[in-house]
Amino acid sequence: MLFRKMLPCLILVAIGLITMPSSLQAQCSAVADPGFETLALGSFPAVVAPTFSAGFWGAENGAVVTSGACTGVVPHTGNRMLQMGPSGNNTETWQAVPVVPYTVSTLAVSGWFNSCNGITPRGIVIVRTFNSDSGWPNWTSLNQISLVLDNTASTWEQISLECVEVPVDTKWILIDVNFRTETLEDQTGYVDDVVLVCGCEPVLNESKSWGALKALFH
Questions:
Q1: What whole-number distance in Å separates Cα of residue 109 and Cα of residue 171?
Q2: Nearest Cα to Cα of residue 83 among 67, 105, 99, 101
Q3: For the residues 13-40, what does the mean pLDDT come to?
Q4: Residues near 170 by beta carbon (within 8 Å), at least 6 away in sequence
Q5: How far apart are CA 192 and CA 156, in angstroms?
Q6: CA torsion sign, 104 to 107 to 112 to 116?
Q7: Whether the Cβ atoms of residue 119 and residue 184 lie closer than 8 Å to each other
Q8: Which domains are present in the chain?
Q9: Mean model confidence pLDDT for the chain
Q10: Residue 75: predicted pLDDT
Q11: What's the pLDDT score for residue 122?
């Protein structure tokens, strides 16, 4: 009888445990100049060597522009956007973001991508984590997601790396937005409004949630 009376309360507690954020009071810096409005671009070596440097974007072959080389491309928001030209296998732009260790175990990153009329390039978001100030290239985790864009310069498409787990001893997050060079067909790609969220909540599917709940009563 007592157990039956307590069951509703136990269920509420269990639900709270399941939905509780995995990183409480997560401490990481925001992305500097997420819309490419204010800062000059640096280089990739300046971002990672000899130690990580925060507060700016480093591009392999990029420029901050108000209008694109491709007809019809305008910034997603604001007055400027990142334009990226072909470079090696992938043309990449990077930013290092400092983290207070043992405060972040999950994160999510998203950005808006666009390109020229008539081509369907592959845009990519990659996130690497490091546990030291001079960690490159020895990352502790790597997560990525890609999307083949439509062939219309007037539309932007969001590429989102949904909430993923990262090592709790993370000191640096390295965000990499890039295009697969061969898919650009010698033209240019564009990125705008890159957002980092630390301490997100992974979405549990129904079976996992119910399994966690039932485990409390065995």
A1: 17
A2: 67
A3: 68
A4: 99, 101, 104, 129, 130, 131, 140, 141
A5: 9
A6: positive
A7: yes
A8: 25-202 (2.60.120.260)
A9: 85
A10: 98
A11: 98
CA-to-CA distance for 159 and 89, rounded, in angstroms? Answer: 20
Cα–Cα dist 114/153, whole Å? 6
Q: What's the Cα-to-Cα distance from 173 to each of 51, 97, 124, 137, 186, rounded to whole Å?
A: 13, 5, 16, 12, 30
Identify the bridge partners of residue 161 per DSSP, sorted by sequence position.
Answer: 109
| Rounded (10°) angle between helices 2-19 and 206-215 | 140
Give the global pTM. Answer: 0.82
Q: What is the pLDDT, as a whole number, of residue 25? A: 52
**Per-residue H/E/C for 70-118:** CCCCCCCCCCCEEEECCCCCEEEEEEEEEECCCCCCEEEEEEEEEECCC
Report yes or no: 146 and 128 within 8 Å, Cβ to Cβ: no
Tokens linked to 142: 């790597």
Q: What is the gyration radius of the CA atoms in the chain, in angstroms?
A: 21
CB-based contacts of 210: which residues, under 8 Å, 6+ apart? none
Neighbours of 112 (CB within 10 A): 22
Residues in Cβ contact with 49 at an 8 Å cutoff, skipping those fewer than 6 apart: 136
